[in-house]
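Entry 14. Ran structure prediction on the chain below.
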Amino acid sequence: MGQILSNPIIDKELDNGGDIMTAFGLCAMQGWRMSMEDAHVCLPKVKGVNKDHIAYYAVFDGHGGASVAEFCGERAAEVLEAQKHVKEGKYARGLIDAFIGLDIEILKDAVLRNDHSGCTATAVVISAEQRQVVCANAGDSRTVLAREGRAKALSYDHKPTLVGERSRIVAADGFVEMERVNGNLALSRAIGDFEFKSNHNLPPHEQIVTCVPDVVAHDLDFAKDEFVVLACDGIWDCLSSQDCVDLIHYGINRGDMTLEDIASRIVDVCCSPTTEGTGIGCDNMSIVIVALLQPEESLDVWFERMRAKKHAPLVSFEDKRRSVFSFYEFPKDDSEVFVVSTKKSDDHTSYSSQEDEEEDQTHAAAGHGRPQMDLFSLETLLGAGGIQLSQGANNVSYIHGSALSEVLASLSGANGAGGAPGGVTTGEDVTSEDEKPDRIEEVKE
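Output, structure tokens:
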């Protein structure tokens, strides 16, 4: 039972930049959630990599608190640069080492090693010398490549219900209940979450929850490959991979938007107009759009090249927003469609959502990590329904007037999240030939 605000916090972190190989636009927004638990890295050029020129982009989506995600946002590039295999140009192995290295660095911190938060991570290294993009992913943030207007998966969501993930969990003496690891965590891979990595007889890739990512390598063809999108599940809950690629092309074809503008508008599309719907659109949101520049190509020339492709049909931002939140009656005037994420309010009073959001439930069973509703707020909510709280011995509160199951049912909705496509090494869940990865590096220790 997660807490959300009465109005979303719509202050956006916006950024852009680039160099001779890539250019990027970023937007991150807290939205309806009580706190911002996303972090990111946008580094067009990584230092200390011999003769190669590589870029590094990553999105970290925290759960159970922001600490681990913030640490990754601050230290991930430094950890990557320190990896031997990265310096040698072995980027698939280097990314795996970097994910494990982040866990190791967190454990060295006297405070963070006892922190119960964790974060998903999706990251790419783009190499000029090898003409390749290498993606590492742990969790349900996602990276997508746009290739001739089509969305091609570079990562797969890791859910406990997947056969490979469940097998590892059970082999490590864990279990999957209610589609969650040990009935608690909705993800099967993450950085942090050390309470699920406590078996000292097992290597990192065999723990109940592992930080070890799947790695997909794609050989670049600049005539076909257009851009890469990295985003947290707050975006992917609302848009399919193809939806996102289509919206980016729509923004490009308008001719008056930067990559930063397009990223910001996609966040607007995905921010729920109300908390009374299905619960999607009420999460933190972060998205990075990375343009793949041809040698000696400027960003302006890249935009012209993209517009010349004339990908169609393309749906507008306004129409896509109406489609995502079809239960809501938007104003007919397109200029009013985005008002909830563009008109600021000072009222950020919180209340409990009826949506059983995956990220908020991460550590519910242990009773720690995320902000909890205080007793007075709970008593007010229950009292409105004729249910009473009374104080007993040892400072224990008792609920009267309804069975506990009825109370819980009245406060939380069913989680409608289905199993996201997520093959570990086979790519069997990819629906089209264009979306299949060139190869997936299988993790071995």
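The radius of gyration is 22 Å. Will compare against last week's run tomorrow.
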